[in-house]
Amino acid sequence: MRRDKRQRGFTLLEIMLVMVLVSVSAIAVVVNLPTSSSDAAETRAQQLYQRLNLLHQDAILNGWDLGIRFDPAGNKYRLLQLTREGWQALEHRRIPADTELEDGLTLAWELGDGVWGKKDSLFEEGSLFDEEMFTEEENKDKEAPPQVFILSSGELTPFEVYIHPSSEAQGEQNWRVMALENGSFRLLKPSEEFDDEVL
């Protein structure tokens, strides 16, 4: 009686092939893991910076008057466009109207120190009109107006946006996006100081 001398098992080549496939799968999983809050803050700040540059160019080239409304909760913003019906959510082929930040991120903003932010105004703060006179005519579903503007003339409201991890106080870990009176934008890393000579 003859015995079959062939061994059942895996060859070295088969074992190496399986190891390569497992390694590639592990790399794919690691690449798709959620990033840290500081990395997410950087990504969102860069995204806002790129969007502002694109919107500023579109406003000038297409004659659009645009605006941004920041949510008081500090986790989202809405892009708006002035139409015949008033302010409406922006319809853009490459930029969504609404952007909500990931959990763990906070967005804060303030008007710039230029002309728009000066307190020595000829008028008292508030509306020039009697608002009570128009309350009946206002529609509750109407879009709230923006807080900052990007106009077709190239002018814009100077403002500064801070994006940072919610676990950190506003300060050292801020990514800052600045809109300047001259119509340009700056992206500043955490702890980076603004240098107006760079302009």
Q: List the quaternary state of the chains.
A: single chain
Report the span from N to C terminus. Answer: 92 Å
Radius of gyration: 26 Å
Instruction: Assign an overall shape.
Output: elongated
Helix content: 25-40%
Report the average pLDDT across residues: 78
Order of helices and strands: HHEEEEEHEEEE
Q: What structural class do you assign from the helix and strand content?
A: alpha+beta
Supply the number of helical segments: 3
Number of strands: 9
Q: Report the biggest beta sheet as strand number plus sense, adding barrel if it closes.
A: 5 strands, antiparallel
Work out the strand percent: 15-25%
Residue ranges: pLDDT <50 for 5 or more in a row?
114-125
InterPro entries: N_methyl_site (IPR012902), Pilin-like (IPR045584), T2SS_protein-GspH (IPR002416), T2SS_protein_J (IPR051621), TypeII_GspH (IPR049875)
Subcellular location: Cell inner membrane
GO cellular component, one term: plasma membrane
Keywords: Cell inner membrane, Cell membrane, Membrane, Methylation, Transmembrane, Transmembrane helix
